[in-house]
Automatic annotation (TrEMBL):
InterPro entries documented for this protein: Flavodoxin_fold, Flavoprotein-like_sf, NAD(P)H_dehydrogenase_qn
Family according to the record: Belongs to the NAD(P)H dehydrogenase (quinone) family.
Spans annotated as Disordered: 240-263
The keyword Cytoplasm is annotated on this UniProt entry: no
Claim: Oxidoreductase is one of the keywords in the record: yes
Protein name: NAD(P)H-dependent oxidoreductase
A Pfam family the protein falls into: Flavodoxin_2
UniProt KW keywords: Oxidoreductase
Amino acid sequence: MKILWLFAHPDPRSLSGALKDEGLRTLEAHGHEYRVSDLYAMKWNPVVDAPDYGHDPTDRLHVGPASEHAYTHGHLSPDITEEQSKVTWADTVIVQFPLWWYGMPAILKGWFDRVFIRGFAFGHTDPETGRPLRYGDGQLTGKRAMVITTAGGRAATLGPRGVNGELNDLLFPLQHGTLWYTGMSVLPPLLIPSADRTTPTAYATAATRLRERLRALPTTDPLAFRHQNTGDYDDDLLLHPHLTPTPAGPYAHYTTPPPPHHP
């Protein structure tokens, strides 16, 4: 496999950094190719701005059309095109970050804002129906993705009855709204809990779990998100009532809801 490891933590000596290194050793040992985007080490610019697209700063910036035009005509900032080339090369993307305020660090959100632009990651339509190709279809269909995240909370607090909310719900904007939106199959996430209280024994357990998940990358079943264009949604993109009779939040958008997270 060809794997892009997208990493967002400011300290390579952290638990996250140690797990990244462990993961890369595992990939190498099993014959996989990999490339790494270590966003803090790269001093990645997370801010969308007119220079990304060679856009005249005196004109109003419409990000969608401007980014698509720059992508189509080869005017994107070189740092963006370099990251897009890594995504195109990879068949699997690992997204690793600490869970800060129930989401990604800003530098990682900015990577998606600047790299996953219209024309590259979305904005395509079915030539026969004219329907947008997204949520299971699209430019990145055929690729796999998996989130690895560390959190300060205990594992149970990120479960279905935990005060922090269920892990897949917290990751829904990324897993469903970004990765699945662009067509990528999303594997169940890997949570490393109690990150601020890791002991040598806990680290050994976490490293073992990570190695096991990486070895199973090619065969792990992805989360069963609903496709947009296979009949589950009406023409207004609303889920048909017979599929979920009452509003059910994120879990309505799975054909089979994921099992409760277990450490």
